Amino acid sequence: MNPALFCDPVTGVSVSDTFFSPVMETVRTRMLPYQWKALHDEIPGAEPSHCVQNFRIAAGLETGEFQGFVFQDSDAAKWIEAAAYSLRQHPDPELEARADQLIDLILQTQQPDGYIGTYYTINGLEKRWTDVTSNHELYCAGHLLEAAIAYAQATGKDRLLQAMTRFVDYIDQVFGPEEGKLHGYPGHEIIEMALLRLYEMEPDPKYLRLARYFIEERGKQPCFFAEEARRQGREYPWKDSPFRFGYYQAAAPVREQKDAVGHAVRAVYLYSGMADAARLTGDDSLYQACRTLWDSVTQKRMYLTGAIGSSAYGESFTMDYDLPPDLVYGETCASVGLAFFARRMLRMDPDGRYADVLEKVLYNGILSGMSLDGTKFFYVNPLEAYPERNRKVQELRHAKTRRQAWFACACCPPNLARLMESVGDYIYMEREGQLFVHLYIGSRAEVKQAAEDTRVEMESRYPWKGDPCLQVESGSDREWTLALHVPAWCRGFRVSIDGKEAEGTVEKGYWKLKRSWKGTHQVRISMEMPPRVVRADPQVRSAIGKIAVMRGPVVYCLEEADNGNDLHGLEMAADAPLTEIRRDDLAAGMIGIRALGRRICREGEELYRDWDGEIFQEQELLWIPYYAWANREEGEMTVWVRRS
Amino acid sequence: MNPALFCDPVTGVSVSDTFFSPVMETVRTRMLPYQWKALHDEIPGAEPSHCVQNFRIAAGLETGEFQGFVFQDSDAAKWIEAAAYSLRQHPDPELEARADQLIDLILQTQQPDGYIGTYYTINGLEKRWTDVTSNHELYCAGHLLEAAIAYAQATGKDRLLQAMTRFVDYIDQVFGPEEGKLHGYPGHEIIEMALLRLYEMEPDPKYLRLARYFIEERGKQPCFFAEEARRQGREYPWKDSPFRFGYYQAAAPVREQKDAVGHAVRAVYLYSGMADAARLTGDDSLYQACRTLWDSVTQKRMYLTGAIGSSAYGESFTMDYDLPPDLVYGETCASVGLAFFARRMLRMDPDGRYADVLEKVLYNGILSGMSLDGTKFFYVNPLEAYPERNRKVQELRHAKTRRQAWFACACCPPNLARLMESVGDYIYMEREGQLFVHLYIGSRAEVKQAAEDTRVEMESRYPWKGDPCLQVESGSDREWTLALHVPAWCRGFRVSIDGKEAEGTVEKGYWKLKRSWKGTHQVRISMEMPPRVVRADPQVRSAIGKIAVMRGPVVYCLEEADNGNDLHGLEMAADAPLTEIRRDDLAAGMIGIRALGRRICREGEELYRDWDGEIFQEQELLWIPYYAWANREEGEMTVWVRRS
Question: What's the fold here for domain B428-527?
């Protein structure tokens, strides 16, 4: 690793994008109010959350029992965090008042020793830390800490942050290498990255030490989770699973882990924390571990859409190249976590391959988690849906074919909300003398390290048009490098500056040009963005003999609404001409793709017959962006089709 | 239905077959002694059965707790039944002494009221019949009754049969429409066909009435199982499953059932009982229900090998055309049950389509359940195996890729044993003036109804050669019809009698010739049996674009031992020439198939790439009979390959 390459995100970015701004506005005006109601159990017909109710009981404002999952507190945290990001760009007194109200309520549940957590506050504080394996106390703490930091940064109000630093001090008394402390680490990671974010804000070495402790302790043998189970007279939860301690990424110390294993969300949250720790400490072997795990995830265990987690059992990774389109879990949260991981790798090494995955997961595996109107959600994001089969086959029932209003386990919708409202933080990074543009999302930003007295403004019609335009405005004549991400999918990437073709050098996935930018300059990018046919490595058993369609970063799919049912009967030549068509019926500006394919015909009713040829009938195939599926009547969907 | 068409099996058939006799001898000399040890927990390293131990405890000969599954008694019953069939053909004093000893032990557990069942005898007789849903009392009774009948018929010793008729009398006091009796039926069917077999032996109307009651009561609403759960304060076991009462074939009265649903073994055992009841009562609507369910199983829910049960969840049917080669359950017992069902349909309607399925399941889905040496078993019979994936992917872990020495739930090995030892009962059926040959298995039989004073003797090299020869010896000059099954796979079926081509008429899958057979006549059959490529109905999503290889009734597969790993990368043209080769290395006389195919090559390490063609390398594909897989080192296996 080379700390001289480290970057910081450009902060304070204001997003004004043809594609994401409507999404963010939907999140702000519909999703956050909707989720507010969900947290308050006010949505008729939806699974009750019990989240706010639990806080009210823990605060002594109501009586009753804790209800819902043990990690229900985290939904409130994610909501506050999403609201914080929204408030940065959109002052909204009503939203802020609600956030303050929720924070008030949370503060009323804090114990004298700093502890916050409704489950044990209601069920008996003496039982705290007896099930670190499963009971998510550190997970909820991590989410609350992220929310506290985001809210303080967005609004300047730090009451929650003050409370959370007290909670962190308390956690530091409970966990650590010292005698009498628990030599453990969270069953569900996230507090690692939260603590490191706190450390970046307030560089108290205690925060770094605690985060590192959680990271380094994980996977030492005998496994803390097994020991805890033994002490408590329980069975280790995953003792008969194929991954055992790997469910919690605890089968080996993190530096020795070669494969992404276990629960996919936990995994990428851990890796994100590891990446932060590697960067903040300049720890090369930890960085190498991150690279190894990145490669495992993205080169062997990631779906075309950026979804991760091949099995509903443990919501987990399975093995290299095992990427079934139907059994897939592909949790929205896992895709969000993969974006976290990508962003953290980019900070250490601005290599286009990280930005490629970031872009892939953002426009596909993450966005597919919400309906176009922002009020309905997918927890699981399959690459193939067949409603009758998804209902009747137990192994596939986790994949819904209708978007849901809410979930008993509602981690995904607020995770989407916080990601969407913070998408501006993912666009630019900078270091002394260099400004990186990772994503082509319309926005305005003030450069801080790359150059003095410099602002950039981007207009973009991405992902439908590959012609973003940056206006660079600088009052300084010092030279600095503009580095533009050249997506791996892009075969023709050209740049003109102030109307003249510009010659940059392409290095590790970035087009770079060092010059003085004094004055105002128009940097026009032109990316060829034809629809194209893609295929998987033949090691991917489920995709062999099949092809998919992409355009730019967008993965396409076939839906029954456009193509009739029995989508599995369709096939397409790999060299079939692909034509762009407008799909304003789905969303303004959306581009669909048309191609001539064919459909296999049934001949007779015999289940099996001797080979006597096959009969096909030509059929036009209408592809729509994958993320836009399941916004019409319920029906079949597939990303992969057989090549004819 | 037309009762004039009803047939009876020709009994007392002596099997002397190049293919099955060695299997039967293996069962007699290795499998039955091995299973005897297994029942006595004497096999080092194998899962203990506890079966005999439970009987000893129930008999008061030992103290201890009931161990193993609630249906463990049935393993003893199946062993006795298999031994009985073996003794018919092979007097074996040691085997008979063991059977007598086991029967002695069972009799010592019979209660004064007739009840036999170690689970409740050990755990408290007052709790009997409180969990008819799950606790298998009637299932064990059914198996014991089948064993008792078989043993009495084979040896003339009827002590177990006497005991079982007392037990049946007691069951008749417990279940029935009368006030005060349980208005229920077994959670696991089998007693229906056992009672009807008893009725055929001893035509006491009570047996018929009780069997019909169990059949007719099933599926009436409100469901008995739900009511029982409510009464006992339990949850109905499958309340959240896709099939709910369908797990027990109890979602609707049997006459209204259109689809084969739920646990596959239970289903075909029920249908077998229904078929017996329809035949014995001339009940046309019950017969039509059997036909409907037969069609559902065999035209929409059966694997190429005759395996049934597409999901490990509930070991169940899922939906039409859902036949994934990897998720499949395909329990050996279910294939055995399908043979039962086929035989019973043949008795009412000697139509070749039933014999086709009987043949298919016998040479493939049943036989695959045992190793070539008869000492190792498969419970689950997948059509695709990939050892690493079967170990690492939870949804596939039920499918083992090494044959097992025994199972905690050991229903399959003794079921295989009793089927193999009774295979002679499946070969011939007769009615006044007609003798049907369903299977070409070398054997001798005395005709009883078709003609007077007539014997047939068959020599067969099936399934490797399609040239069975029947010698018909008759002392009567009355004309009767010889009906020879023309397998659906057979394109050229010719018969010569005493060296001269014979002109028969083919009707519903049987070649028929009516004549006098006085004297001794050689009936030589010639079936063309070239290897051939088959495909599935395109509705079978998992087999679309794929082909398989068969020869005669035998389904072939590719194994890693012959073809290298990554079998999914292989493909073959549908019209590739198929060459027969000897595979004496696997079993004497076995025929393998060779064909030229190709293997897709990896190009680079990218998980996804733009389409730029594919590179293939020619490869010879070596196919072996499916049933013979997993008899060498552990490795991959597939039945279906992509067609190129």
Answer: Immunoglobulin-like (2.60.40)
